[in-house]
Amino acid sequence: MKLFEIFNLYEQQINKSLKKKIQISEEEKNNTGKNKIKKIVYSNKMVQQTEKAKSLCEYNTIQSQQIQFLDIYNPYRIDFNQIRMKKMNE
Question: How much is the pTM?
Answer without folding.
Answer: 0.31
